């Protein structure tokens, strides 16, 4: 039962729940049957598949290897062994382990031969197609690829022809559709050239390519291939099995198109061919009978064929046989989706609808069939025909699973998209609004859920909000004030859904803390787990046959789920009231336009960006009002431009080169200019009077510093960074993880009440305890960097914890709340960067023996529990602001929010690795500007950057552009304004002297806006 439920959950796209159920099924099997029982293969298979779908490849490998080891000892599991090996091959493709991949593919090829030979012996018929292949080790994958890509000798290529479909299968399973199609096509061409276009060998290639296209619903491409194969094999008396496969493919296509009468005739022909090939009772014959029965039922012609198929299964497989149940379930799921297109399209008539209701019952099976049928209809561009089916499915889901079930949300979202596609804007907005309300609540609940649940849900949640924005915000013109206000809140939810996964691990960490907050979080997590279990049970009960359903139990569970949901919402409100800072970290609420504008000073403006796959949006909020514009770009275009910009300015860590390294490549000024035009150009005139921009980025925009953008075009041969129109010339820039962060930050006292100026941790020692951290490069130059900063703030040498003193224990034991400025000069890591690392954090000196208290890694969850009262936390570390997933920036967002919760007002972080010499100059100059001129950190950083830009040796953006102020850039620093002492900086590198002179009060190149270019 549990294994079937896990399989059902996978099909329902509830992958993390499927993982939990599969683990429970596995545990129960182990308890009752032992650790090597063949009954473990199915739950191991499902568990491995669920992990693959979550892209947790390293975790999937040992699970799948164990399934292979058990299945290899049991001949009854040969078919499932092939499927598990296919999943394992996918793992090795992703992990780039070619030797392991070769071994698995060779075993798959050998098994295929064994299965097909046994099949031929069982039926007494020749194989439908040639099954000649390579012996294991005769030719590995890499060698074959080399032969084929080089063209090779024709005879050699043909001699190894049997391996081509295996290569295509590798590409197919790894999602490389384009490459797979090329290999299938190449195989067909070689077969036709060698054996002739009317040969059995050519028919094998036709069927491979036809199946490839059919599985992707490219029916127009699959149909002529099946037809050609059927014609070729019809002339071959021993090839009835292959001909039946081709004819059955044509029958499936006819059924998918709603052409039920032609489908019926084709299935009858396929059955005749299979009886000729295999004899009376055979599983393949039962397959075709089963499908014929479904077609006849839809046509109102009774169910005699379906009964004949089931009777044949009873004779072939005794009751309770594992393969029989699995195979029938698979047939029902597959064919119900196929035939549903006819019902949805009203081709089947009332008899078909009645048959469907009688067969499937009025519950989840019917709703799932309606959804599948609607998807099939959409494939042919008949969106209007899909809408009634989805509306009926929605009604069933709401009634059976409850109004907040994930199935309800997915169906609402699909209806909104469909109604939008057919021009029914009012209906689309209605469905979209319902979906937004549902997922707005679920977004709050995400903080209580596991990281796996969050990852599974966040993509759909974000798409719900993006669809709503596409419906609300016009493509041109200025929308009404109410539209601006409503869309501004939806935009914030879209950004919040992206960062939810980065914060899930932090929630787990906070749940381990003592005190009332920790207890409330633990209670919230327990309730979320209970609700997930209740949802699983409801789905399982509602998916059983109509006559076997326990409606009273369903109603009881539905009431329990509703109560748990209400309790979860209540706990979220209580946590927000008890600790608003916690709510801002893990349960951010959207801030209204009015509330945001009241938080801004007259010279400030807040920019919120949201990027979707089809379009993007920008909001500008200032003290005097707000506006929204739809951008003439989208996430893929912005990502491509951002990647080009970042790769060019800092490919492979170029910022770590010495300052006097003469090698360089031209700055992609065209990409920097285009990004400005696409993102800011439509509102540039509205920025008049603004001197400080607070930016809330989205997706790739969280991974680039806005100071890199150019406000005008520059001639390629005339580009000079010293005179280029950088955006930083116009505005001081601050970055916010979320709009609501501004409320949390400005609710704090304006200045720190701490008495001490500076405390720092740097130059940590790596390599003692944690394997993944041993490879990190030590940063001895950061010691000089921190001494220079301490000097600029008038702090004593005793405020520095360096080398062996820079430990996690030292951080915990220090009275951090007594210091106005904190610095961590070390490596920062983001979630997933090392195996087992679920949170972003900072690397410190590794203890000789790691413990829960000190493992050498200060995670975001641990940061959130610190007690700070700092105006500035300086993360002078390599790659601090690098995007959490290589593209999205969620890691920075999670780490920044954790510091804000702990009590920091702002952070200065870097987007890429930078040499220590420029870092020393930039950070000390920024601090000196702020303390001497009583200006905010954002403006102080702007002036420092302009000093770098004006210099001869440090004008390249790789030295100054990576640094950003995260948080409230309006906050300044108090302290001595004497600049840095002579002799503190490293000597011997060009360009330092002119910048040293700028560090003091009113130094040359202080960078007023009167100096701006462009």
Describe this structure in words.
The protein has 1014 residues and is of the alpha/beta class. Among the domains are: 236-360, no CATH class; 406-586, no CATH class; 744-1006, Rossmann fold (3-Layer(aba) Sandwich), CATH 3.40.50. 58% of the residues lie in helices and 7% in strands. The strands form two sheets. Strands 3-2-1-4-5-14-13-12-8-6-7 form an eleven-stranded mixed beta sheet, with helices on both faces. The protein has a three-stranded antiparallel beta sheet with strand order 9-10-11. The longest helix has 31 residues, at 481-511. It is elongated, with a radius of gyration of 32 Å. The termini are far apart. Mean pLDDT is 76; it is low at 122-160, 322-334, 337-355, 500-505, 651-664, 881-889 and 977-1014.
């Amino acid at each position: 039962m549990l294994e079937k439920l896990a399989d059902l959950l996978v099909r329902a796209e509830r992958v993390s729940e499927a993982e939990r159920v599969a683990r429970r099924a596995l545990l129960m099997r182990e308890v009752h049957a032992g650790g090597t029982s063949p009954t473990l293969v199915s739950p191991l298979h499902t568990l491995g598949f669920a992990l693959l779908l979550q892209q947790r490849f390293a975790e999937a490998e040992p699970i799948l290897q164990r399934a292979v080891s058990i299945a290899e000892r049991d001949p009854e599991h040969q078919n499932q062994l092939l499927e598990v090996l296919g999943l394992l091959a996918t793992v090795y493709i992703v992990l780039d382990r070619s030797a392991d991949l070769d071994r698995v593919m060779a075993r798959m090829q050998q098994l295929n031969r064994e299965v097909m030979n046994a099949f031929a012996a069982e039926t007494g018929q020749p194989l439908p197609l040639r099954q000649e292949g390579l012996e294991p080790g005769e030719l590995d994958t890499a060698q074959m690829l080399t032969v084929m890509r080089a063209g090779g000798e024709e005879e050699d290529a043909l001699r190894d022809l049997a391996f081509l479909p295996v290569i295509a299968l590798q590409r197919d399973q790894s999602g490389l559709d384009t490459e797979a199609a090329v290999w299938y096509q190449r195989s067909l061409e070689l077969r036709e050239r060698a054996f002739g276009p009317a040969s059995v060998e050519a028919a094998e290639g036709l069927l491979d390519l036809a199946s490839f296209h059919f599985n992707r619903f490219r029916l127009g491409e699959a149909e002529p291939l099946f037809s050609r194969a059927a014609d070729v094999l019809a002339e071959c008396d021993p090839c009835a099995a292959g001909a039946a496969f081709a004819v059955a493919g044509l029958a499936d296509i006819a059924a998918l198109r709603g052409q039920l009468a032609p489908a019926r005739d084709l299935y009858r022909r396929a059955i005749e061919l299979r009886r000729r090939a295999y004899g009376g009772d055979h599983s393949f014959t039962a397959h075709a009978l089963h499908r014929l029965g479904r077609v006849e039922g839809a046509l109102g012609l009774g169910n005699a064929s379906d009964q004949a198929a089931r009777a044949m299964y009873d004779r072939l497989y005794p009751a309770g046989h594992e393969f029989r149940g699995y195979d029938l379930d698979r047939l029902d799921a597959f064919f119900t989706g196929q035939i549903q297109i006819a019902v949805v399209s009203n081709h089947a008539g009332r008899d078909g609808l009645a048959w469907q209701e009688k067969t499937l019952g009025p519950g989840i099976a019917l709703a799932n069939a309606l959804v599948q049928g609607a998807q099939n209809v959409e494939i042919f561009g008949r969106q209007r025909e899909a809408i009634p089916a989805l509306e009926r499915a929605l009604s069933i889901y709401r009634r059976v699973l409850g109004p907040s079930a994930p199935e309800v949300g997915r169906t609402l979202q699909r209806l909104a998209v469909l109604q939008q596609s057919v021009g029914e804007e009012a209906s689309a907005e209605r469905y979209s609004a319902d979906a937004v309300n549902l997922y707005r609540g679920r977004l709050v609940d995400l903080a209580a859920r596991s990281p796996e649940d969050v990852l599974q849900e966040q993509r759909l949640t974000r798409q719900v909000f993006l669809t709503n924005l596409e419906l609300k915000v016009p493509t041109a013109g200025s929308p009404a004030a109410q539209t601006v206000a409503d869309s501004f809140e939806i935009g914030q939810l879209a950004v919040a859904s992206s960062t939810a996964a980065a914060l899930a691990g932090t929630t787990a960490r906070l749940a381990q803390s003592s005190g009332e907050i920790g207890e409330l979080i633990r209670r919230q997590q327990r309730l979320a787990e209970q609700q997930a279990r209740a949802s699983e049970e409801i789905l399982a009960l509602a998916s059983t046959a109509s006559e076997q359903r326990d409606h009273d139990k369903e109603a009881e569970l539905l009431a329990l789920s509703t109560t748990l949901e209400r309790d979860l919402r209540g706990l979220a409100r209580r946590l927000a009231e008890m600790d608003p800072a916690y709510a801002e970290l893990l349960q951010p609420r959207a801030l209204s336009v009015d509330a945001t504008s009241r938080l801004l000073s007259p010279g400030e403006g807040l920019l919120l960006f949201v990027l979707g796959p089809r379009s993007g949006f920008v909001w500008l909020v200032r003290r005097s009002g707000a506006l929204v514009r739809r951008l003439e770009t989208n996430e893929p275009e912005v990502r491509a431009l951002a990647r080009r910009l970042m790769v060019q300015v800092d490919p492979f860590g170029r910022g770590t080169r010495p300052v006097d390294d003469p090698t360089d490549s031209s700055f992609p000024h065209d990409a920097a200019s285009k990004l400005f035009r696409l993102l800011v150009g439509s509102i540039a005139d509205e920025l008049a009077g603004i001197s400080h921009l607070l930016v809330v980025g989205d997706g790739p925009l969280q991974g680039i510093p806005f100071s890199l953008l150019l406000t005008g075009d520059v001639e390629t041969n005339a580009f000079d960074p010293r005179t280029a129109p950088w955006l930083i010339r116009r505005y001081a820039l601050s970055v916010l993880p979320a709009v609501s962060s501004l409320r949390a930050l400005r609710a704090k006292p304006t200045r720190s009440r701490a008495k001490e100026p500076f405390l720092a941790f740097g130059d940590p020692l790596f390599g003692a305890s944690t394997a993944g951290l041993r490879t990190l490069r030590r940063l001895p130059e950061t010691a000089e960097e921190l001494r220079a900063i301490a000097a600029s703030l008038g702090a004593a040498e005793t405020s520095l914890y360096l080398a062996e003193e820079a430990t996690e224990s030292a951080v915990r034991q220090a009275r951090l709340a007594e210091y106005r400025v904190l610095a961590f000069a070390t490596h920062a890591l983001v979630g997933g960067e090392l195996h087992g690392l679920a949170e972003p954090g900072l690397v410190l000196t590794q203890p000789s023996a790691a413990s829960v208290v000190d493992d050498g890694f200060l995670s975001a969850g641990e940061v959130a529990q610190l007690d700070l009262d700092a105006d500035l936390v300086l993360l002078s570390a390599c790659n601090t602001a690098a995007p959490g997933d290589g593209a999205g920036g969620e890691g920075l967002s999670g780490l920044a929010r954790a510091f804000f919760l702990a009590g920091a007002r702002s952070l200065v972080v870097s987007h890429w690795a930078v040499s220590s010499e420029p870092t020393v100059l930039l950070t000390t100059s920024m601090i000196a500007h702020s303390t001497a001129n009583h200006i905010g950190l954002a403006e102080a950083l702007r002036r420092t950057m302009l000093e770098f830009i004006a210099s001869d040796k440090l004008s390249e953006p790789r030295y100054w552009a990576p640094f950003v102020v995260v948080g409230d850039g309006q906050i300044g620093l108090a302290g001595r304004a004497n600049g840095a002492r002579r002799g503190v900086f490293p000597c011997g590198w060009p360009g330092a002297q002119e910048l040293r002179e700028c560090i003091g009060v009113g130094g040359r190149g202080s960078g007023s806006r009167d100096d701006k270019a462009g």
